[in-house]
Structures are given as C-alpha cells and as structure tokens.
Write a structure and sequence with these properties.
The chain has 511 residues and is of the alpha/beta class. The protein has helices at 3-8, 36-47, 70-81, 93-109, 129-142, 161-169, 187-193, 216-225, 241-246, 286-289, 316-352, 379-388, 418-435, 442-450, 458-468, 481-489, 492-506, and strands at 122-126, 151-155, 172-176, 198-204, 229-233, 263-267, 279-283, 294-296, 304-306, 357-359, 367-372, 394-396, 405-409. It has 3 domains: 78-323, Type I PLP-dependent aspartate aminotransferase-like (Major domain) (Aspartate Aminotransferase, domain 2, 3-Layer(aba) Sandwich); 340-435, Aspartate Aminotransferase, domain 1, CATH 3.90.1150.10; 442-506, no CATH class. 40% of the residues lie in helices and 12% in strands. The strands form 3 sheets. It has a 7-stranded mixed sheet with strand order 1-7-6-5-4-2-3, sandwiched between helices. Belongs to the group II decarboxylase family. Sphingosine-1-phosphate lyase subfamily.
C-alpha cells in the first residue's frame, strides 16, 4: 500500500489480476497492468457465457449473414477509424465522406435521391434505431415551438423507443390500437387520434414484434391532410424489404416514394449486416431536418454543433458499415435476402407442422412469430426447451387482445440450420407438454395482477428475485419460464418496475 493510499484509508487494487469465473470478471483496474494476451483470454472466457452471435441459432439481437471474411474486414475497418472523432467533420473529412456515402446508399434504397419524388433527401448517421427515432421526434417537436404540449400518434405495435423518445423529450404519446387479426392499425383510427397538438404520426415497416408492414400510404395521407409529419420506422427491416420485393414478395409501398412520408429510419447493423451500432435517419428535405440539430455558442469554449445526440463519436462503426456495404454490394444483399426468405418460409412450415402451434401472422418480411393453441402447452416452457436444444428465441408477453408469442428474427445464417429446427421444435413441444405449464403460487399471481408499482419495496423485490433465481451470486437461472410467467401476469406498469428492479440487482460493481 502506498503512503497516499494509507493516508486515505483505502486499499489499492489487488496485485493478482485474477481470472474470470463463476463470480464474474477480475477487477478492471489491477495494481499492475496485465499482459495483452491474458486480457484477451479473460474476455474470451467471459464471452463463453454469451448467446452465440454466429451460427444461425440466435433469433434476436444479432444479425449474421454468414459471409466468410466479413468479420475480419469490418474489424480491420473499425480499427482503422476507431480513434477518429465525429465531433468535427472539418478535422476528419474521411468520416464525413463515409457518412455521406452511407446516407446516399440508404436514400437510394428507400425511394429518395435524384430522379425520385424526394430528390432533396438528406440524412444523418446515428448510433442505432433508438437514437434515430428520438431524433425524428425531436425534429418534429422542435419544428413546432408554439405548442405547449406537443403530441405524437403511435400504433401500440410501434417500437418502444418512441415511448422512450416521448419520455425524454416531454412529448405526449397517443397510442392507437392494432387489429388483433391483421396486427396493423386502422387508418381511420390513426386519423381520429390526430389533434391540433400532434407533431408526428408514426408507422412501422415492418413492426418488430410481428414483422408486418403498417398501411403506410393511408397513414401518410391522413398525416399530410392534417399538416403533420409522418415518420416510417423501417429500422428493423427497411434494408431488406426492397430486396424482398425484387424477389417477388408483395411488399407495399412504405418509403420516401410515398407522398406524405417526411422521414424514415433504417438500421445498418440489422439487415445491412454491419457491426453495431449504425443507423440512418433520412428526411425528405433539409428544412425538415433542420430542427434535428443542436447548436450552442453561449459559453467560453468551442461552439457545439451536433446533428445527432452524441458529440464525440467513434468513426469505427461508421467505417465498418461503409466496408460492409462496399464489400457486399447490391447483388450480395439480394442473395442474402433470397437465403433469408427461404429460411423464413421453411421455418413457418415447421411451425405449421406442429400440433398446438400457430403463426400469429403469416410471414411477410423476415419475422416468424408463433403462439400456442393448446392450454397444456406453456409457451414460456417451450422457449426454455428450445434454449436447451441450442435455439435462442425471444418470448413476447401478452398484450391487450394479443396472446403471448415467440419472436424469431430470421437472418441469412439461419438457412443452413433450418432442417435441424423442425425436429427440435417438435421435440421441444413434446417436452414442454410433458413438463406442463408453470404453476406459480396463487397469492403471487394475485399480487402481480393487483400490486401498484409504487408498492414494490426493495425487500419485496429481493425476495421475489431470490425465489425466481435472479440476482446475487446466482446470476441468471437456467430456466426463465417462471420469471416470464410472473411478468406476463403483471400489468405493463408493474412489469416495467419489476424488470427495472431485477436488472438493477444484476448490475452491481465488481471491486
């Protein structure tokens, strides 16, 4: 211990750098530096607990094209620009050039640019879909400084990032229901929700949860008649829908070719298969984009001017995205979309072939969404059984008239694995039936259905977490069905609070 440490009454970090184990990682700041190869070995050991990002068995969170050499290319491109700072494009014109090229590619794919109905389209590169959506809401809000309480009209199937944007930006959210059969909002309902204070109307192409495309043409038309901006959230599938149309799918018009669509977003780290995190937000013209910027000169330092939320931005993700698009090209994306479409169709056939399951929606993009028709088949137990067989899916809770479901985001990497999925699905269903539905204590279910969120105490949450195997040294349980069953029984407000508290128990410092 140094004299300074002794005087302060604190201990220096351990001289032993440690190795990752069941208790988590070693301290991030050891007393002495650790050799590079050992640090990389520690990271590899930690990564061993993660879901597989490659191999076509993870149906959420990551997008794998299974293109040989692409990872090596994007890693090198990322490294070449990792220390470039997007704060000042005049200091680093390489990053500005790559951003402009990415915006141009997105605009060309999504109905904008020279020779189109949106020849003056402009855009920005953001860190992901959530940032793109927040900025779309900000631009719409700031374009109407006369309004005391600006509002946005959002189908309930729209991404939760719009609710986050409304929360951050103090904009009121007017939800519009979706038809339980079509999973789409009715244009008339959207029109009825528009008020004088409405600054933005939202639609999805496609929606994340179910993979269906909203009636963009109708929604954009009613927004235009009301003099309101219309944003199309194509973050999830906007990069692949144009290619699916070229392959013969009846994809409806959804992009800047639709009159009344004033902005659209698409994530390049999804079906453009770039590494995380790169999204593009397009506006029909520069006037619409202008309120997106933040500028501030009333201080002694440099004048801050930001097109996006962050100031300092690493050029690594942008360079990696640029390298991905250049390497794959239009023909490469068409081939990847074809492989993905084949996988979607065969996965859907596998679901249709299992008694007790049904598709919640006929696939029209890159999502297979399934639910159960058998009360004895617990969907959350099925998710666990699929996980035990190496298939990582995403459970979705019941909402209003919509049942709980299982979401599969399908990528090109899934195609070679489809033949394995069908038998495993049938086997997992049989195992789930044999195990039976999760039975939580009646008093716990009653509490979940009636407890006000503000009544949750730290002691109550800790007790629930311990009973469900969450938190502490245990980390996460092997089986999540009891947790999902409890969350499914809770109203949305209580579910939100429970998840906040559960995640808080997991996110604790390592000393």
């Amino acid at each position: 211990m140094t004299d300074q440490a002794a005087a302060s009454g604190t201990d220096q970090a351990s001289d032993d750098p440690g190795t990752p184990g069941a208790g988590g990682p070693p301290p991030a700041l050891p007393a002495q530096g650790v050799p590079a190869d050992r640090v990389l070995a520690e990271i590899a050991a930690l990564r061993a607990a993660d879901r597989p990002t490659h191999g076509g068995r993870l149906f959420a969170y990551v997008y794998d094209p299974a293109v040989p050499g692409l990872d090596e290319l994007t890693t090198a491109a990322h490294a070449a620009s990792a220390h470039v700072n997007g704060l000042d494009p005049t200091a680093f014109p390489s990053l500005l050039a790559m951003e402009n090229a990415l915006v141009g590619a997105a605009a060309k794919l999504l109905g904008g640019g020279p020779g189109t109905g949106a020849p003056d389209v402009v855009g920005s590169v953001t860190s992901g879909g959530t940032e793109s959506l927040i900025l779309a809401v900000k631009a719409a809000r700031d374009a109407r400084p006369d309004l005391v309480e600006p509002r946005i009209v959002v189908p309930v199937s729209a991404h939760a990032a719009f609710a986050k944007a409304a929360h951050y930006l103090r904009v009121a959210l007017d939800p519009v229901p979706v038809d339980p059969a079509t999973l789409r909002p009715e244009v008339a309902d959207v029109a009825a929700a528009i008020r004088p204070e409405t600054v933005l109307v939202v639609c999805s192409a496609p929606s994340y949860a179910h993979g269906v495309v909203d009636p963009v043409e109708g929604i954009a038309a009613v927004a235009a008649r009301a003099g309101v901006r219309c944003h199309v959230d194509a973050c999830f599938g906007g990069w692949t829908l144009p290619y699916l149309r070229r392959l013969g799918l009846p994809v409806p018009r959804f992009d800047l070719s639709v009159p009344g669509v004033t902005s659209i977003s698409v994530d390049l780290h999804k079906y453009a298969y770039a590494p995380k995190g790169v999204s593009v937000l397009l506006h029909r013209d520069p006037t619409l984009r202008a309120p997106q910027y933040f500028a501030f000169a009333d201080w002694p330092g440099y004048t801050m001017i930001n097109p996006v939320i962050s100031s300092t931005r690493s050029g690594g993700p942008i360079a990696a995205a640029y390298a991905t698009l250049r390497h794959l090209g239009d023909a490469g994306y068409l081939e990847l979309a074809d492989r993905t479409l084949t996988a979607v169709r065969r996965l859907a056939d596998a679901v249709r072939g299992v008694e007790g399951l049904r598709l919640l929606a006929e696939p029209e993009s890159t999502v297979v969404c399934l639910t159960t028709t058998d009360p004895g088949l617990d969907l959350f137990v099925l998710v666990d059984e699929l996980t035990a067989r190496g298939w990582h899916t995403q459970p979705q809770m019941a909402y209003a008239d919509l049942p709980a479901s299982v979401h599969l985001t399908v990528t090109a990497a899934v195609a070679p694995k489809v033949d394995e999925f069908g038998p495993d699905l049938a086997d997992a269903v049989a195992a789930a039936r044999a195990a039976g539905p999760v039975r939580l204590p009646d008093e716990l279910l009653a509490m979940a259905a009636s407890l006000p969120p503000e009544a949750l105490t730290p002691e109550l949450v800790a007790g629930l977490a311990a009973g469900l195997g969450l938190g502490g040294a245990a980390g996460l349980p092997d089986r999540m069905a009891p947790v999902n069953t409890l969350l499914n029984a809770a109203p949305p407000a209580l579910r939100e609070r429970l998840l906040v508290e559960f995640v808080s128990l997991l996110q604790r410092p390592v000393y």
